[in-house]
Amino acid sequence: MPILFNPAKKKGIFMVPSGGTKSPTPAPSFTNTKSLDFDGVDDYVDCGSFAGLNSATALTVSVWFKSSVYSSFGRLVNLEKHVEIFQNSSGAPNTKGCFHYVLMGTWGNSFATLGGRTQNGVSDLCDGDWHHLCFVWDGSTTTAIVYEDGIAVQTKTASGTINSVSDTIYIGADPAAANPIQGNADEVALWNTALSPTDVAAVYNSGSPDDLTSLSPIFWTRNGDDATYPTIPDEVGSNDGTMTNMVAGDIVTDVP
Amino acid sequence: MKAFAQIYSIIKIEDLDLINFDEVFQTSKETIRKSLNEEKFVIKYNIIPSFIASGEVDPLEVLNHSECFSLMQTPEWSEPMPVE
User: What's the pLDDT score for residue A6?
Assistant: First the structure.
């Protein structure tokens, strides 16, 4: 009896009766129906220790975000001491919801920061609509690129070595609920490669998240789809997230 | 769209051991958000917990989500993240 495996879900073993000539049952199509809603006070997801980007020579971070509120100090994705995406309005109000994109090297010291108030491609990232953020770094070409809604909005030379020590992936805040962000986040994925512009366009998919399986992420949480509170599964690895200071109602049907 | 917790309370750190985490949204005493000087912390709930109803714990402030979010943005609770 043949067994089909749907890698997009890591689940769903379909048993096809033997002796027949019927076509195998097609894998269910990709659907995105849920996201996580962070309150900006103390909600976050702890995805555990992650070694996949230790000493990485390239990386990509992809996340969808929606908010109508500017967090003064809001962490969206934090692989401590490796790569971070956050809002920070120190010095002046962050009136366009701009994000900082940071690469961290030895001892967790940053060696490149992109984004910030001086740059944003989208007119307002906290306009109440969903936006896709993608941060790509290729160490072989020392090039870092920020994509917002599929458009390369900043390119910068970034030479360095990513930290070699494992750290924890947090979504929505830092450890102990410090620097939380208010808004929805969905489909958080990491790669230890630099996605090409074509790949980034495929991830953005004209504003509709798609199945990332063919792009081989090394971490991917669907932020609600496939989840059983309080666990947010890692679709491709073992870094399942734990919703912290959150309730089941924080899994919402608000998606890009 | 989900509604956030209806009530947020600011509690003295001395009262931390009096909190029954089965009655609030916070996961545990290890995950609570503290003020930078660690003298206060936040709890949130929709139904008034017994430890507050009984007077065992007396919140320093009782806030709605918007008020609490604004408070969390102040220097007492947040310090700017370093950028390059």
Answer: 41
- The closest alpha carbon to A254, from B3, B69, B65, B10, belongs to B3
Higher pLDDT, A22 or A130: A130
pLDDT one-digit tens code per residue, B33-53: 999 999 999 999 999 999 999
B44: nearest CA in chain A?
Answer: A245
Whether residues B31 and A245 touch (CB distance < 8 A) is answered with yes
Contact at CB, B83 and A75, closer than 8 angstroms: no
Q: Which among B2, B82, B84 is the nearest to A37, CB-wise?
A: B2
For chain B, the distance separating the N- and C-terminal CA atoms, rounded to the nearest angstrom, is 36
Tokens of A61: 């971070």
Residues on chain B touching A245 (C-beta within 8 angstroms): 25-27, 31-33, 44
Written as six digits, the tokens of A39 are 């309150």
Q: What is the ipTM of this complex?
A: 0.93
